[in-house]
Specification:
The chain is mainly α. The protein folds into two domains: about 1-130, no CATH class; about 135-259, no CATH class. Helix content is about 70%, strand content about 0%. The chain is built from twelve helices and no strands. It has helices at about 5-25, 30-50, 55-80, 85-95, 100-120, 120-125, 135-165, 185-200, 210-220, 225-230, 230-235, 240-245. The N and C termini lie far apart (about 65 Å). The relative contact order is 0.12.
């Protein structure tokens, strides 16, 4: 079986199981905490399928993907606990009937397909038994990944503490990393995957650039920045002021809005 086929099998199987669980719960947003775990499961499946071959680069890739996926999965699971279905899926539920059937292709199969494409750099490294030693470019990729993971983990924790504070209710999070970017967690997610791609590029798999490119597009235009900011100004009056002075994605010094 090819690396692409095995990744598709793992992603499809996990997403199909998640769909079955979502039916009695009437909550498809349980897909969000599972999605990063698909990458972890696919990575280890690829490594085991190749009998642990691949040398130091394979281990580096396993560490990067596992650390990213386990941290994000744990964060999303904690955030999801006790919460209702996400508003994005509620909107789909109202539009697509019968939703129990539509949710399989529109939510779960789509997520599986996206995971297969995003994970192309992982497939290229872990699907190749080449035990060649690490090069300087591998360490560049690991450093880029570490910067991304830092932004993602720190900003998620800053936001969690902000939301847990009753005094913050109705206000805008504009402190810490959120002072420099309106979505530093999404920025970190994107950077982490560009770092993973650099490691794949060190192995000669430059063509896997489709993976981090797709992840960045998703975070910016599909399920991330654009969707979240569509109605947020109506719920938080100060958000328009925050938008005027703060970069949407890439962290930048705040702009001056007054005279």
């Amino acid at each position: 079986m090819s690396a692409l086929g095995l990744a598709a099998l793992v992603a499809g199987g996990l997403m199909a199981g998640c769909w079955l669980v979502s039916l009695p719960k009437r909550d498809v947003s349980i897909v969000d905490p599972l999605w990063p775990m698909v990458f972890v499961a696919a990575s280890w499946s690829l490594w085991l399928f190749n009998d642990g071959a691949g040398g130091s680069r394979a281990w580096l890739m396993l560490v990067m993907v596992s650390a990213w996926g386990l941290r994000l999965g744990a964060h999303l699971t904690a955030r999801k606990r006790g919460a209702p279905e996400d508003f994005r899926y509620q909107a789909l539920r109202r539009r697509l009937q019968p939703f129990w059937l539509w949710s399989l292709p529109v939510v779960f199969i789509l997520r599986a397909g996206l995971a297969v494409v995003v994970s192309l750099p992982v497939q290229a490294v872990l699907g190749d038994p080449d035990p060649s030693p690490l090069r300087w470019l591998d360490w560049v990729g690991a450093a880029v990944w570490a910067v991304g993971l830092f932004f993602e983990a720190v900003s998620d924790e800053q936001l969690r503490r902000f939301k847990a504070d009753e005094a913050s209710r109705g206000s805008v999070m504009d402190r810490g990393l959120w002072r420099f970017s309106r979505h530093p967690n999404y920025f970190g997610d994107s950077v982490a995957w560009w770092g993973i791609w650099v490691v794949a590029a060190a192995a000669g798999a430059w063509w896997t650039v489709a993976g981090p490119l797709l992840m960045t597009i998703l975070l910016l235009r599909v399920s991330g920045v654009t969707v979240l900011e569509r109605n947020i100004s109506k719920r938080r009056p100060r958000y328009a002021e925050y938008v005027a002075r703060t970069s949407a994605f890439v962290p930048m010094p705040p702009r001056r809005t007054g005279r």
